[in-house]
Amino acid sequence: MSAASHRRHDVIVVGAGHNGLVAACYMARAGLDVLVLERNDYIGGAAVSRKLYQDFTYSNCSYVCSLLRPEIMRTLELPRFGLQIIPYEGGCTMMRDGGHLALYDNHDALRREIARHSPRDAEAYHRFSRDIIRQCKFIKPLLMREPPDPTSFKPRDLTELLYLGQRLNNVGEERMYDTIRFWTMSAADFLDEYFESEIVKAHFSGSSIIGTALGPRSPGSAYVLLHHYMGDIDETVGAWGFARGGMGAVTAALTASLQASGGAVRTAAPVEQVLIRNGRARGVVLASGEEIEAGTVVSNMDVKRTFLKAVAPEHLPEDFLTAVRRFKIRGSSGKLNIALDGLPSFPALPAGAPCVRGDMHITDTIEMMERAYDDWKEGRWSAAPYVDMLIPSQIDPTMAPDGKHYMSVFVQYCPYQLADGPWTDAKRQAFGATVIDAIARHSPDFKSLIRHAEIRTPWDIENEVGLTEGNIFQGELTMDQLLFNRPVPGYAQYRTPVKGLYLSGSSTHPGGGVMGAPGANAARRVLADLGRGGTR
Could you tell me which of 227, 324, 335, 536 has the fewest CB atoms within 10 Å of its CB? Predict the structure, then answer.
């Protein structure tokens, strides 16, 4: 995959992350000569499986499969190319007093569990679930559609605006108000309308802060909660699962699908600059100085990395550059990958409970979560962090040697820039120790089982993967940065001010997560502009 490419290609895709690969697959299936260029010596971007310690396989960035669109999986035949998603059975939040709230995929079992903490909340859960599903059903058809330009009078934009208006109209007047409120509310305010129990509210509010520089009381965090609910495993709303073999299995299947359609991937090929002549993209220049020509360039890098680093400023309007600089991409998440000698015990949880095989949390109040966010705002990692930890080797034994286990720990909050100066190895280790100590308070044998821990800050994620500030969504998912505002008003349809240059990453609609929708939408825009509307 690292062989040099000297011929001119129809399309060059910059970055072999999942969205770049999805875009490449669609374009290759339409008959275009597509080359994907990846700066690392491995494929996958943030969706990778890596053996960084002995025979343990780490999903060392993204770690769970939920948002990947089923229509993309079907069209690109990803199961045929080896992708297997294993649904997990639940999750839990452990409490500081030794109690717990378990989460089960069975609706009635979950209601009974909530009833242990509040019979009133158990009754409210049905209403909460119904309203969340209603919001999902409103938004999900928009994920795979190009957002309209509300200032345009082009027939396509007018048709899409009419479609959006009809969807709002179809929910009814009362629900229309609820929908508009929901998009701007905080998760804490939203959950207060349903629940009284602190542990119940804390458990559900966790989804509102993962990967974002917001707290549960920040306006707009209710939508982030919904974004994580839009998962599809076998068409089940809100379902989550593991990719067998780690998240690299997703991008490995995409790569195989691309190659089956005649596309190619070249690794260890960092793109230094987009080659622009006479106002049009004509290819790319690698860090080595090699030029590779193409009729179209699709950047899977985030909007800031694309236009502030890879495109010379003289090719861009100043107001566009100003808007790119203002686009919010803030690093707030850390990640630990831990090799374990055995399965840790969690005394708060029933032995053998299925909730242990899902995501486990240790933040049991919204107030605790908000205080963790306060630390981030002050330029510190959270003293009492929110963690989303999973042990996927319980379900997928390919990830660890017999009798051993792999734990993935996603952490909020961890700043990209520390108030007391740059990240150092000592600070990185101190951040990791804070997270490990927090988990160990709920697992007495956890520390003794640790064989290796990879500790990653937003700074590390940026430098390894290329995500600005290590932001996993390539930009905040707030109302001012969604739909026709993402990433920049007037440029939300995957085109850019440079002819022949397109964006396909999560900085574009509909945003982040291992979803694939930005890549698929961008490919359709490229194909339409080239007069190749269909795929074979």
Answer: 536
Residue 204 region by backbone torsions, left for phi larger than 0, else alpha for psi between -120 and 50, else beta: alpha
**Distances from the Cα of 106 to the Cαs of 70, 227, 235, 236, 265, in angstroms?**
21, 21, 15, 12, 42
Q: What is the pLDDT of residue 239?
A: 57
User: How many residues appear in the chain?
Assistant: 536
What does CATH list as the number for 9-85+246-328+476-529? 3.50.50.60
What is the C-alpha to C-alpha distance for residues 534 and 536, in angstroms, rounded to an integer? 7
Q: What is the pTM of this model?
A: 0.93
d(CA 291, CA 472): 30
Amino acid at site 67: L
CB 296 within 8 Å of CB 502 = yes
Per residue in 410-468, pLDDT tens? 999 999 999 999 999 999 999 999 999 999 999 999 999 999 999 999 999 999 999 99
Burial class of residue 313 in the structure, from the number of CB atoms within 10 Å of its CB (0-12 exposed, 13-18 middle, 19+ buried): exposed
Model confidence pLDDT, tens digit, residues 31-80: 999 999 999 999 999 999 999 999 999 998 988 887 788 899 999 999 99
- Given a contact cutoff of 8 angstroms between Cβ atoms, the answer to whether 382 and 375 are in contact is yes
DSSP lists the bridge partners of residue 407 as 338
What average pLDDT does range 497-517 have in this prediction? 94
Nearest to 161 by CA among 178, 179, 147, 143: 147
What's the pLDDT tens digit per position in 158-198? Answer: 888 888 878 777 777 777 777 788 888 999 999 999 999 99
Total Cβ atoms within 10 A of residue 73:
19
Nearest Cα to Cα of residue 451 among 342, 345, 357: 342
467, 495 in Cβ contact below 8 A?
Answer: no
